[in-house]
Automatic annotation (TrEMBL):
InterPro entries per UniProt: Nucleotide-diphossugar_trans
SUPFAM superfamilies on file: Nucleotide-diphospho-sugar transferases (SSF53448)
Record key words, sorted: Transferase
This protein's name: Glycosyl transferase
Top-level lineage group: Bacteria
Gene Ontology molecular-function annotations: transferase activity
C-alpha cells in the first residue's frame, strides 16, 4: 500500500484504498461520453508467441470504456499480419492494426523520407509515432493511453488507473506517467532506473547544481516506465525519440511544453514484470548497454538545450560522481531488499554500475562527436505542414490493410 506523500514538483496519485475495478470502470464509462478514449499497443510480431499477450488481449477485451484500440505491428510479413489480425480479432472494441512492414505504410514512410521527415531507425519509438498519427487521423478519441505487450503480470486495472487522470473531465492533467514496483522471483528488478537514471540525476545535480529539469526528472518514481497516457491534443506537438531514450525523451517534451501542474504520475499496479533485456556488457549496441547510452545522451541533449556546457573533462567528473552515488544506492537497495525478504546480488549490481559508468563516457563522447545528431522524430504538426494530407493517407492505408484482412 502506497503512502500519500508528495515529493518533487510533479503530482503523485497513489493507490491508497485498492478501489474496486468495477467502480472505477463505471466512472470511466461515464467519462467516455465526454472524453472518448483510445489505447495504443505497440507490438512486435514475436510477442504474439510470448507469455503475456494472450492474457493482455483477454483482459482488454473486458474494458467497457474504450472507443478505439490501435495496434502497431512490427516485424511481420503478410502471413504474420493475417495471423495478428486473427489474434487481435478477439477484441470486441473498434480496433485497427498498423502493419508497419506492409507496402502501404512503407510507401508512406518513403514519402516522408523524401521530405526528411521519416523516423530514422526501427523500434518502439517509430511504432508509437505512427500509431499516434493514426489516432489523430481517426479522430475517435480525446484521451489516449499506451502500454507494452509483454507485461506478464497484466490485468485491466492497470489501464483504468493509467488513463483515469487524463480522462476525468474534472482534472486538468494533460499527461500521466505510470509507476509501480519492479519485483519478480523474489528479487528487485528495474536496474537501469535504479542504478543508472536516479544516480545519474543526483550526480548531475552535484556537478551542475540545482536545475528545474533535474528536479523534474527526479520527481518521477519510475521514469523509465513504458506506460503513459495523455490528452490527444498533446500528440500534435510531441517529438518522439526513435531510440531507447523514448521514455526520458517524452518526459523532456512534456517538461518543455507544459507546466508541471498539468502533469502527474499515477500508481497503476502493485507489481509489474515483463520481458527482461540482457545486460550485454560485451556489446554496446545491444541490450541494457545500448539502452543506458541512449538514455544518457537524451539527458545530456536536454541539458545542452538549456545552456549547460559539456566537455570531456565535465563528462569525466560526471562519471566519477555517478559511480560514487550509484555504489551508495546499491547499499540502500540491498537493505530495502533484505527487510522485505527479497534477494539482491551485490556483485551483479556493481557489475551493472561499472558498465553504466563506462557508458556515461561513451554517451558523452558520442554527444561531443555528433553535435548535429537529432534522434527525435518530427512532430505531427511539422509533418502536416509539409504534407497537408498525410493523416488522410495514413488513415486510408490502415483502413485498406484492415479491410483486406477482414477486420
Amino acid at each position: 500500500m502506497a503512502d500519500f506523500y508528495q515529493n518533487g514538483v510533479v503530482t503523485t496519485l497513489h493507490n491508497l484504498t485498492d478501489r474496486s475495478l468495477e467502480e472505477m470502470e463505471k466512472e470511466l464509462l461515464s467519462f467516455s461520453r465526454v472524453r472518448p478514449m483510445a489505447l495504443v499497443l505497440p507490438s512486435l510480431y514475436s510477442e504474439l508467441q510470448g507469455p503475456a499477450l494472450e492474457n493482455i488481449i483477454n483482459e482488454v477485451a473486458k474494458v467497457p470504456y474504450l472507443n478505439e484500440i490501435v495496434i502497431g505491428l512490427d516485424q511481420a510479413d503478410e502471413r504474420q499480419f493475417k495471423h495478428a489480425r486473427h489474434v487481435f480479432g478477439h477484441l470486441p472494441q473498434h480496433h485497427r492494426i498498423l502493419w508497419n512492414d506492409g507496402p502501404r505504410l512503407r510507401k508512406i514512410d518513403a514519402l516522408l523520407e523524401e521530405q526528411g521527415l521519416a523516423p530514422k531507425e526501427m523500434g518502439k519509438g517509430r511504432n508509437v509515432w505512427y500509431c499516434y498519427g493514426y489516432v489523430l487521423a481517426s479522430a475517435r478519441a480525446k484521451a489516449v493511453a499506451l502500454h507494452d505487450c509483454d507485461i506478464v503480470t497484466y490485468d485491466r486495472s492497470l489501464l483504468a488507473r493509467l488513463i483515469y487522470p487524463v480522462a476525468n473531465p474534472a482534472f486538468s492533467y494533460q499527461f500521466a506517467k505510470g509507476y509501480y514496483a519492479r519485483i519478480a522471483d523474489s528479487k528487485l528488478n528495474g536496474r537501469v532506473s535504479r542504478l543508472l537514471v536516479t544516480p545519474l540525476i543526483r550526480a548531475l545535480k552535484k556537478v551542475h547544481g540545482q536545475l528545474d529539469y533535474l528536479d523534474y526528472l527526479d520527481s518521477f518514481r519510475y521514469p523509465l516506465s513504458g506506460e503513459f497516457s495523455m490528452r490527444v491534443d498533446v500528440l500534435n506537438d510531441l517529438r518522439i525519440p526513435s531510440d531507447w531514450g523514448l521514455e526520458v525523451g517524452v518526459l523532456s517534451e512534456m517538461h518543455r511544453n507544459y507546466s508541471t501542474r498539468r502533469l502527474c504520475q499515477v500508481d497503476i499496479c502493485d507489481n509489474y514484470d515483463h520481458k527482461h533485456q540482457p545486460l550485454s556488457a560485451e556489446d554496446a549496441a545491444a541490450g541494457l548497454s545500448k539502452m543506458s547510452i541512449d538514455i544518457c545522451k537524451a539527458i545530456f541533449r536536454k541539458l545542452a538545450t538549456q545552456g549547460e556546457v559539456f566537455s570531456n573533462e565535465k563528462f569525466r567528473t560526471i562519471k566519477a560522481t555517478y559511480f560514487r552515488v550509484a555504489l551508495d544506492f546499491i547499499e540502500t537497495y540491498y537493505n530495502d531488499a533484505r527487510i522485505n525478504g527479497l534477494s539482491l546480488d551485490r556483485h551483479k549490481e556493481e557489475q551493472a554500475v561499472e558498465l553504466f559508468a563506462e557508458n556515461i563516457m561513451r554517451a558523452g563522447e558520442s554527444f561531443l562527436d555528433n553535435p548535429m545528431e537529432t534522434p527525435f522524430i518530427p512532430s505531427w504538426n511539422r509533418v502536416i505542414s509539409a504534407i497537408p494530407d498525410i493523416l488522410d493517407r495514413i488513415y486510408e492505408a490502415v483502413e485498406a490493410d484492415n479491410r483486406e484482412a477482414g477486420v
